[in-house]
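Quick check before the chapter quiz. The format below is the same one you will see on the exam, so make sure you can read both the input and the output lines.
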Amino acid sequence: MDIKDWFPEFQVSAETDTELQSYFFQLPEVRQVTDSRSWLVLGRKGMGKTAIYEHLKVSPPQTLNGFETICVNFRDYPWPAHQLYKDSLAGELSAYQKSWRYLFFVKAISKLLEIKEHGGEKLNKEMKWAKGYIEKIYGNPDPSLTEVIFSKIARVDKVKGPGFDIDDLSFDVGEISFDDVANDKALQSKLRSNAFTLLGYFESIYKANCGDIKILIALDQLDENWLQGEIEEYSKVLINLVNTCRTISLDPELSGKLKVVPFLRTDIYHSLRFNDKNKLLQDSAIVISWDTESLDDMFFERVKKYAPNDINIDGNKKSGNLFEFTFARQGTPAIKYITRRSFFRPRDVIVYFNKIRECHEKSRSGLYSSSELYEADREASASVYNEIIDEWSNQFPEIESLLSVLQTIKVETFSYHDFTVKHAAEFPDVPESRKRTHMEFLFDNSIVGQKKQGRWEYVCSTPNLKMNMEQEFRTHHALTYRLHLIESRPNQAV
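Here is the expected output.
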């Protein structure tokens, strides 16, 4: 049986891969989310953040250290909504944090109600009040992000506490929209007053009634829907999200009972400017990392799922079971050849194997050949290039022009001087400092690397690698074909 008859092409996006959980590979970082005190998950695009998020969404509490999960996707989130909650510049930080806290406690108490009712528990007066308020204000026992942010809360005359009957709640006529509130100072004032009053009630009710119930709120796609020109404001909102998550993690009344876990791109986190950022990184962050072995293990889970019973699978060979050869060029196993042409991201490896499958011709062995491995290199290179553009187009609009600089150098290995010469043609009239900033960007994101102990290394595989402007640079293997680069040779003209 030929491999193409039993081994499929895979979805690259964790969101669209309906089979993901059947071959999900648990990195140690997955357990850290539920079993450690850490609450911030960081990783470059394509590192598997969403895969972990999707795993949390479908897994039962008994496999998640007892946590019930609320998974919130921010793909279409109205970021400017938080601006409606700030009264003045002086109150900005407090307002942003309160607006996040308001969102989290609405979601948390909604989940708490669901768990208690599902368990057949009789609700006390406070919980009945909370249920009534949620259903009447938000129109949904489990309100979405948009329903919470753009609810009728700004139309409520006055929020009355648990001592009052829900029937006493009255509304002004009409629904609510962003523009309504944004253009009406009175509505803004009422929105803030009502939301923050309700926050106080919901928070105290949650703390008094959660008991032994543990809830984890996972936040994904926080880098989506950012508009160019609004990044500075979004950054303020995001900083206060991080600080709110930290405050919740430090609250002794919530310890082990409520955990809010944002999944955030590493580059976006590093772009934020706030106190104790590095300390938080050390104390509370889970940084997703892969190496050749773990990537091999990840892909082998897929091999095991689809391999027919009559095909002998060697557990020691892992993804090597897919190839008719043991070693590629220079005695390198296929998986190592592939990871050297990746940024050590699952997405890169999955794409490369998909490209090998596209190149495959039926053969006597029924397995992938070395020539198909090499042929796939070209298409995989184009895919990596496009991923880089997609990854950075919002936060770093110069990315495509910067890759053009590397292309015009023409060779893989080059000096900083070679770079500055070609950079000047692509970016005329920029100061020397900007050239250096661009090189640092390329280096920090593994697009270029340098030699360490006689081997070409990149930050993606050697995180502590430091740039030396006096040493030669090398464009990553993954981009060689797409940028039409050739190997550099002594005295070769650039």
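If your answer matched, good. Strands lie at 40-43, 67-73, 214-220, 258-265, 285-287, 413-414, 448-452, 455-457, 473-475.
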